[in-house]
Write a structure and sequence with these properties.
The protein is an alpha+beta fold and 154 residues long. Helices cover 24% and strands 40% of the residues. The protein contains 3 helices and 6 strands, in the order ααββαββββ. The chain has a 6-stranded mixed sheet. The mean pLDDT is 98.
Length: 154
C-alpha cells in the first residue's frame, strides 16, 4: 500500500501529512486510522507500548470509548527526510461530563511507501470547564476555516 505524500518531506507535504492524520483521528474510526501505519508499526503513547495494526485498533477503540466528543488539531513542528514532528491538542470529556484538553507532541517516522512505522507520543491532560473549550465544530473533520493551534494561542 502506498500512502502519499511520500518522504522526503518538505513544508507542504509535512503539513499535508499532518492534516491527513488529524482528519483520520477526528473520524474516530480505528480501522481507518490504522491503515496509515505499517503492519508492524511501533508506538509509544504515554505509558503504553504498541506493536502493529491490531494493537493500534484495540487501543483506539478503548480510547474513544473513554474520550467522548473527541476533537483534535495537529500542527507541524518540524520535518526532515522521513520524519515529521507535530504538536497537537485535543478536547474531550469523560462519562461524568468532565472536559479535558490534552496537549502533546508526536514524533513520526515513515517508510518509503508513506506509512508511519514509528509514533512516539508524549501527552499531558488538563481539566477544563465546558466554557473553556476552544474546539467547536460538529464531530468529524475540522472545518478549513476553524483556527489551528497557533491561531488559538495554544
Amino acid at each position: 500500500m502506498v500512502r502519499p505524500p511520500l518522504p522526503p518531506f518538505d513544508q507542504d507535504t509535512a503539513a499535508q501529512k499532518a492534516r491527513m492524520a488529524e482528519d483520520a483521528w477526528n473520524s474516530r474510526d480505528p480501522e481507518k486510522v490504522s491503515l496509515a501505519y505499517t503492519e508492524d508499526s511501533l508506538w509509544r503513547n504515554r505509558g503504553e507500548f504498541l506493536r502493529g495494526r491490531e494493537e493500534i485498533v484495540a487501543f483506539l477503540r478503548r480510547k474513544w470509548t473513554r474520550e467522548l466528543d473527541y476533537r483534535l488539531i495537529k500542527e507541524v513542528w518540524t520535518w526532515g527526510g522521513d520524519r515529521i514532528a507535530v504538536r497537537f491538542a485535543y478536547e474531550c470529556h469523560d462519562d461524568s461530563g468532565q472536559w479535558f484538553r490534552a496537549y502533546g507532541n508526536e514524533n513520526w517516522e515513515f517508510d518509503d511507501q508513506g506509512l508511519m512505522r514509528r509514533r512516539i507520543a508524549s501527552i499531558n491532560d488538563v481539566p477544563i470547564t465546558e466554557s473553556e473549550r476552544k474546539f467547536h465544530w460538529p464531530l468529524g473533520r475540522r472545518p478549513d476555516d476553524h483556527p489551528g493551534l497557533s491561531a488559538l494561542g495554544l
